[in-house]
Design brief:
Radius of gyration of chain B: 19 Å
Distance between the termini of chain B: 51 Å
CATH topology of one domain in chain C: Rossmann fold
Number of domains of chain B: 1
Largest sheet of chain B: 2 strands, antiparallel
Structural class of chain B: mainly alpha
Helix content of chain B: over 70%
Radius of gyration of chain C: 18 Å
Shape of chain B: globular
Largest interface: A-B, 43 and 41 residues
Oligomer: heterotrimer
Order of helices and strands of chain B: HHHHEEEHHHHEHHH
Order of helices and strands of chain C: EEEHEEHEHHHHEHEHEEH
Number of helices of chain C: 9
Number of strands of chain C: 10
CATH class of one domain in chain C: Alpha Beta
Distance between the termini of chain C: 44 Å
CATH superfamily of one domain in chain C: P-loop containing nucleotide triphosphate hydrolases
Number of strands of chain B: 4
Strand order of the largest sheet of chain C: 6-7-8-3-9-10
CATH architecture of one domain in chain C: 3-Layer(aba) Sandwich
Shape of chain C: globular
Strand content of chain B: under 5%
Strand order of the largest sheet of chain B: 1-4
């Protein structure tokens, strides 16, 4: 249990500091980082435990974003802006937090339907198939004509603030923690080490993976809804290869097999990336104004990934979890 | 009839191009079990090298392009992958994502985000005429390039010492080392060969689009992967065939799909690939049990 | 001038597959390690050849040159060749190519080519079907090919891991004749076998390996006494009736 509290504390304490500092830029950056963290936790829940790299997982972020986004736009304006929406969607509006929940649920249902026929595939084929699903989702959402602007969604209420994203992150961390400790999580990790051995031991890999996939998709969907509410407008391009690479960078730098790794990896990459983004936008030091070229932030993320993998290839946390109880007893014994 | 022939050539040409993508990726995957996403960026560099043709002649441009890509590919192997070559596949995959991100953004910083027009071998844009038949010269070149490179690869694999070592390493890497094959050398060779294919792919892509941009190879590398998995992991010939089938099917889908659905053409092709993998998860051309490193 | 193992240990995670293994294999002698399945015999050979998946401790040296911790492709260049369990010939390569690949580490290419030809003389079964794919060979042919492939590297020491596995008695006899001939030509051979009876006949020195350790015979003995008493003890354990 102290592991869980450590994790939660690790997240909350810096946020309290950020709120106290009161900079809107910092709060905004922290909010988007937290939303990314939810995505990484979702990705870790499935890929970290099963060893199957779900390259297409951001498709569920996309589904959650579209579901939440469309349903939370005020229905006064909706039919006019989006003439091609079906009647039900055009005339219903739900409160933002409910929208996030709906995003998670819709993503979970989609995941269950899509993964069910795929559950018996081997790990490599499964990875590529999820990628193919993302490609299909991308084509679908790019080409549906919601309005004259194609598949873009806009006018989503900007309801996501730092402290109403936090409960969702805590819930996601709790869910991932419980999953990891559960029998289901144990079975899934057994299959990660050796598919054949696990199956001979009576573990039904198909169902175990299916459940993990659906739960993780729900988390991705929630993150998608929060993303929609934090940015107000988006299109299919926001949920494609760039986001996928970013999430994998965060997960792997932190340590794919560790939940603390998901948190730490996101934090590290976020800090580095936002630092350089700020420099990209221009910074004045006294009388000097300078900026670094566009793309530097990504170069820095790439270098993080490469350096961490070269020197600590399992990621910063390896497969360990942070635990104050451990640290305390180590401190006492020294 | 004319319509049919023109479409057939388009289909064969795209099939050949995708086969080239797949070969580039399968070379490294088959030998070193690395899923190298940075391959697409090698292609992009190949495409960018055509920009030199304003300054130097066509042939030096081509040579420089191939050289640059091969050197970059070898550098990737030496500095990014060699140290972690024994790591599990997911780690290697993510390293390749890192390398890809790095190269793409360096290109972005160097060249900016606007695509740059290419003026190279203008004659390639002229259609060739055979009676009523109009064929794009670039299509013919694509088919020819695949034929030459494919043939060259077969020759190297079957008739040279390098080739025998590559095939042995692809089948049983550890046993190959036990008989004396140098691991680093054979992996580097696969990267070099992959680089040659990537350079050619990138150049053709850039000529097709007419411009070079930092994400030129992005879609190609994904297609290459899907083709490799479709053909069967570990089978280089299977990958080429997988790529060919996807390219061919893409053009055919374009022709036969109704107008309203045609923007979703690629989605149909991907869905078909998923279906195939459901029924034959090991890939089309590989006997079950092979292909995955133990 | 021999292959010496000094306190060799092999550990897989927390499992110690082999410990305190010390032995000497001289040129022109066959040292056989027999023992039941899982005793750790293959782990020892793999460790010598550099192919171990586990952690290797202790010292391995060939003619006083330390081999410990080296890569497999370096070890074969120092004169130690492994014929692994299950042969592991390259099924997608032809017989000819399997032999060719055994010569990649040879610097003297024309002598190497001559050695390849001489394999066809030594193993006529292989000569008949040079271009055939490795996957089409029978068990006995595959075993011959695996040995030939190791021999073209001109090793001074040959490590054989369960050569009789899956082969009919007649073929086993043929293979063992070949091994004897190789010993007579001056190769030092370290042989691992479950098939104790045949192996003991072949051996100059027999060692028994049980649960990771060697049981030594009394000084100067060829080791058969200890193996015999081991088998007797297992018979007694199995229900107490002498059979």
């Amino acid at each position: 249990m102290s592991r869980l509290f450590t994790l939660l504390g690790l997240v909350i304490v810096p946020l309290l500091l950020i709120t106290w500092v009161g900079s809107p830029w910092l709060s905004g950056v922290a909010t988007s980082s937290l939303i990314l963290m939810i995505m990484v936790v979702g990705l870790h829940l499935f890929s970290g435990n099963s060893g199957v790299l779900a390259f297409g997982h951001v498709a569920f972020v996309e589904i959650g974003a579209y579901a939440c986004g469309i349903l939370t736009i005020p229905s006064i304006a909706k039919p006019a802006i989006f003439p091609n929406l079906p009647y039900f969607l055009a005339h219903t509006t739900i409160p933002p937090q409910a929208g996030v929940l709906v995003g998670g649920v819709v993503a979970a249902i989609a995941a269950a339907i899509l993964f069910f026929p795929l559950r018996r595939l081997n790990a490599q084929a499964l990875s590529i198939v999820t990628l193919a699903l993302l490609l299909i989702a991308n084509i679908f959402f790019s080409n549906i004509r919601l309005s004259s602007s194609g598949g873009s969604v806009f006018r989503v209420p900007l309801a996501a603030t730092l402290w109403n994203v936090v409960p969702w992150l805590l819930a996601a961390l709790l869910l991932a923690f419980l999953f990891q400790r559960s029998r289901l999580g144990l079975r899934l990790r057994a299959s990660r080490e050796d598919e054949f051995a696990a199956e001979s031991g009576g573990i039904d890999i198909g169902w175990t993976r299916l459940i993990a996939f659906v739960v993780s998709a729900a988390i991705m969907g929630v993150a998608g809804g929060l993303y929609a509410l934090s940015i107000g407008s988006f299109s299919s391009a926001d949920f494609y290869i760039d986001l996928t690479i970013l999430l994998f960078a965060m997960m792997v730098v932190g340590g794919m097999r560790s939940l603390s790794g998901a948190v730490i990896g996101t934090a590290v990459i976020s800090i580095v990336s936002n630092f350089f983004s700020k420099l990209q936008n221009g910074v004045s030091v006294g009388d000097l104004a300078f900026h670094v070229p566009s793309g530097t932030a990504n170069v820095s993320i790439a270098l993080c990934m490469i350096v961490v993998l070269l020197f600590r290839s399992e990621g910063l946390m390896r497969d360990l979890e942070i635990n104050v109880a451990d640290l305390w007893s180590k401190f006492k014994s020294n | 009839m004319i319509f049919f022939l023109q479409n057939l050539i388009d289909a064969v040409s795209l099939g050949c191009l995708y086969a080239l993508f797949a070969l580039s990726i399968a070379m490294i995957f088959g030998v070193a079990r690395i899923v190298n996403f940075a391959n697409g960026d090698l292609m992009t560099v190949g495409g960018f090298s055509l920009l030199l043709s304003g300054t130097v002649g066509s042939v030096p441009t081509l040579l420089a392009g191939f050289a640059a890509v091969i050197v970059l590919s070898l550098a990737m192997e030496r500095f990014a992958f060699r140290k972690i070559i024994k790591a599990p596949m997911p780690t290697l995959m993510v390293m390749s994502l890192g390398v890809s991100l790095l190269i793409q953004n360096i290109l972005l910083i160097a060249f900016g985000s606007r695509p740059k027009g290419i003026l190279f071998a203008q004659f390639l844009t002229e259609p060739l005429r055979f009676g009523e038949l109009r064929i794009s010269a670039l299509n013919v070149v694509t088919i020819a390039v695949l034929a030459v490179m494919g043939g060259g690869l077969v020759y190297v694999l079957k008739r040279t010492s390098v080739g025998v070592q590559l095939r042995a390493a692809a089948e049983d890497f550890q046993m190959a080392r036990l008989v004396g094959v140098r691991a680093n050398w054979v992996v580097a060779s696969s990267f070099a060969i992959s680089g040659v294919m990537a350079a050619a792919s990138g150049m053709i892509l850039a000529l097709q689009v007419g411009t070079a941009s930092y994400n030129l190879g992005g879609r190609a590398v994904i297609l290459g992967f899907i083709a490799t998995v479709l053909g069967g992991l570990g089978s280089i010939a299977g990958a080429a065939l997988g790529g060919f089938i996807i390219g061919f099917a893409t053009v055919m889908a374009q022709i036969f799909l109704p107008e309203a659905v045609s923007p979703f053409r690629d989605a149909f092709v991907y869905a078909a690939v998923i279906l195939v993998l459901l029924f034959r998860p090991q890939g089309l051309f590989v006997a079950f049990g092979r292909g995955v490193r133990a | 001038m021999s292959l010496v193992l000094d306190n060799l240990g092999v550990t897989y995670g927390s499992v110690r597959a082999a410990r305190s293994i010390s032995l000497t294999c001289e040129p022109g002698k066959i040292v056989t390690i027999v023992g039941p399945n899982g005793a750790g015999k293959s782990s020892v050979l793999n460790a010598i050849a550099g192919a171990s998946q586990g952690k290797v401790s202790g010292r391995i040296s060939v003619d006083d040159v330390d081999l410990s911790g080296q890569d497999p492709e370096q070890i074969i260049r120092k004169g130690v060749a492994l014929v692994p369990e299950g042969r592991r010939i390259f099924t997608s390569l032809s017989i000819e190519e399997n032999l060719q690949i055994g010569t990649v580490m040879r610097r003297d290419k024309s002598a190497a080519a001559a050695d390849v030809e001489s394999m066809y003389d030594r193993f006529p079964a292989l000569a008949r079907r040079r271009k055939a794919a490795g996957g089409t060979l029978s068990g006995g042919e595959a075993q011959q090919l695996a040995i030939a492939r190791a021999l073209v590297s001109r090793p001074r020491y040959l490590l054989l891991d369960e050569p009789s596995l899956g082969l009919a008695p007649l073929i086993i006899a043929q293979i063992f004749d070949i091994v004897r001939a190789l010993r007579d030509e001056g190769l030092g051979i370290l042989l691992v076998e479950q098939n104790a009876v045949a192996a003991m006949e072949l051996a100059d020195v027999t060692l028994l390996m049980l649960t990771g350790e060697l049981r030594r015979s009394s000084e100067g003995g060829s080791g058969e006494d200890i193996v015999a008493s081991y088998f007797a003890s297992t018979l007694v354990e199995e229900g107490g009736t002498a059979r």
